[in-house]
Amino acid sequence: MSGPNGDLGMPVEAATEGEDGGFEEAEYAAINSMLDQINSCLDHLEEKNDHLHARLQELLESNRQTRLEFQQQLGEAAGDASS
């Protein structure tokens, strides 16, 4: 995997054209390697995003439950005070 600056450990120079005007095999290999690394990073980010989303959903539900319990306690306290 690449470093934080995208360093692949091998220089990728500007694409040079072969004699037939197309990219040489080395350039395709370098591009494929970079695309694989990008794909891997995106997969990792997606996993982290899914995990964070699940945790936030849990927190939201916990907060809703706490709020309902607090409102019930306030309602019971108000009922006791009026008695």
From TrEMBL:
GO MF: molecular adaptor activity
Region (Disordered) residue spans: 1-23
Any single biological process term in GO: gene expression
CC per GO annotation: cell junction; intermediate filament; kinetochore microtubule; subapical part of cell
Protein name: Bublin coiled coil protein
Organism: Chinchilla lanigera (Long-tailed chinchilla)
Organismal lineage: Eukaryota, Metazoa, Chordata, Craniata, Vertebrata
Gene: BBLN
